[in-house]
């Protein structure tokens, strides 16, 4: 389950690092990277390890716009 509340905030974003997937990236069963990503530092991502996605994962929204689903086919760029 993804991080919520104080775990991920605008103030935690950095210019380059680990991409943060949000509901805007989940369209038509595939990850859509055209909106671009916000990034967090690698050490921050390690603290949120239970929310990190891996190749082959299926991700879906549980809050906000519920019901969006996408498959993570390979490296996230």
What's the SSE blueprint?
Blueprint: E1 18-20, E2 26-27, E3 29-31, E4 38-40, H1 42-47, E5 58-60, E6 69-71
Parallel strand pairs: 3-6
Antiparallel strand pairs: 1-4, 2-3, 5-6
What does this entry look like structurally?
The chain is mostly beta strands. The chain has one domain (about 10-70). Helix content is about 10%, strand content about 20%. The strands form two sheets. The protein has a four-stranded mixed β-sheet, with no helix packed on it. A two-stranded antiparallel sheet has the order 1-4. A hairpin with a 1-residue loop joins β2 (about 25) and β3. The longest helix has 6 residues, at about 40-45. The radius of gyration is 12 Å and the shape is globular. The two termini are about 20 Å apart.
């Amino acid at each position: 389950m993804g991080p919520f509340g104080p775990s991920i905030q605008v103030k935690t974003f950095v210019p380059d690092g680990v991409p943060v997937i949000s509901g805007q990236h989940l369209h038509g069963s595939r990850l859509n990277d055209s909106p671009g990503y916000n990034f967090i530092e690698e050490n921050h991502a390690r603290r949120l390890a239970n929310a990190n996605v891996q190749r082959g994962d299926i991700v879906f929204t549980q809050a906000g716009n519920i019901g969006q689903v996408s498959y993570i086919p390979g490296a996230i760029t």
